[in-house]
Amino acid sequence: MVPKIHSGELNSENPSSYSGIWKYPTNRDVHFQSVLDWITNKRKDDDLNGLWRVNNKIYNLETFVKHHPGGSDWLEISRGTDITEAFQVSHIINPIAVEKTLERYFVRDTTTPRYSPYTFEEDGFYKILKKRIQPIMKEVGTGPTDEIKRMMDSIVFGFFCLSILGTFLNSTWLQILAGLFLAMVAIGAHNFAHLKHNWRTYCLDLTWASSFEFRISHVFSHHCFPNTILDAELSLFEPILEFLPKANKNWIQRHGPIVYNHVLYSILFGMAFLTRWMRVIERKQLLRPEFLLVWFHLALCLVIGSDMTSGLTSWVTTQLTCSYFYHLCAINSAHHAPSIFHDGDEARKDPDFGLCQLDAVRERSDSLIQNSLFVQLVVLGEHSLHHLFPTICNSKLKYIRAVFEETLEEFGENFPAMSSWDHFKGCLEQLRRSSPKSIEERKAEEAKFSSKSK
Q: Which candidate, 222, 217, 46, places its Cα nearest to that of 204?
């Protein structure tokens, strides 16, 4: 695969920096779509007629869906798509046994090239690192520790206490504090949403967001294809936030975010909430039980409030605050700066999945984030290792840090960490950027960061 530097717009003739993305995604430039539109379009592009693809083999997992150890949702959502990336990052322990199970559902080989930017070569960085961590994870397990469960549960408890008190006392400040706690609940739920089926995933549904939709836009899209044109967490923000280095960005798109980002952060969850319920009412989307959790919070506020208006005001204040702090953290924490790869920039010659993931993420150098599991849980810490192995709980990533660093050194790779402030500034700089960068230009940008990845 030959890397490219694009001089202008990504389009049907110039779809991506990666030759593995050999066509422009269906309906990508149709704005204000839902995440369900994204997965529908991916099914069209993968063209598998309801089957599942892993590498160059096609499988019919229909009879296995309800028996999937991680939960049926994962296979239901990914029906009719190429799940190679998700398969590789999800099965860390006993991969041979997993592959033997998969072979029972084999249908046929395919000669059609994969519609993906990445490779998984046995002698590549990712597969070597994955093999090296297997005995470690087999010993300590990939699931959450009791400590991180207690942390998560305490935040949820704190949110309810603050929300009840803020509503009862009609205190705007307590309602805002409850919103901050709810944002931490949502970010903490992010860790659990990547794991096998568990109730803490649904804590995200206490917000105006949806854990079901999150698994589509975040797990199957963003985590599999970060900062490429296949990343729904880029396309769903367009044209309001244009992270890719497009030549046709207008002045408002380049300079407006420093002002309107703060309004946008507050309403993003609300926009998703309204879209979801419009689709449910129009019967374009099934009503899932967890969708009702956010209404439970509203009912609680209405019961506790002195009147209906104060209860509704408390609910809206808390939810808007949650949306603001969640997106302030999520958008500015890891992925957007001129030194970080965005589709249109020059891609590396060897599109190894692991190295390309690291090209699209930068760790934060703040000591508080590096040294506190609680802070990592609530501000998306340990992001580099999390992107490589999202189904390993944040509480277990510390066990593979040394192996990760040794393997990076062996491959001659280094990804300097950035402070949270540099990430915040870098995000605005990336939104202003309208021209692609070569690898050397991005390295020059990195030179300003003296701290190293943990």
A: 217
CA 72/CA 77 separation, integer angstroms: 9
CB-CB neighbours of 326 under 10 Å: 26
pLDDT in tens, 265-274: 999 999 999 9
Q: Examine the pLDDT at 452 and tell me if it is beyond 80.
A: no
Contact between 344 and 244 under an 8 Å Cβ cutoff? The reply is yes
Percent above pLDDT 70 for the chain: 97
Q: DSSP state, 11?
A: B
Please answer whether residues 211 and 189 qualify as being in contact, where contact means their C-beta atoms are separated by less than 8 angstroms.
Answer: yes
Buried b (16+ CB within 10 A) or exposed e, 231-248: bbbbbbbbebbbbbbbee
At residue 82, φ and ψ (nearest 5 deg) are -80, 115
> Token digits for 62?
């229909």
Question: Are 361 and 335 a contacting pair, CB within 8 Å?
Answer: yes
Q: Is the peptide bond before 239 cis (omega within 30 degrees of 0)?
A: yes
Residues for the chain: how many in total? Answer: 454
Q: Quick check: helix, strand or coil at residue 390?
A: coil
- The burial class, CB within 10 Å (0-12 / 13-18 / 19+), for 345 is buried
Beta bridge partners of 444: none
Look at residue 1 in the predicted model and tell me its pLDDT.
42
pTM exceeds 0.70 for this model: yes
CA 312 from chain centre, in angstroms, equals: 31
Place 9 in a pLDDT band, splitting at 50, 70 and 90. Answer: low
Question: Phi and psi at residue 170, in whole multiples of 5°?
Answer: 55, 45
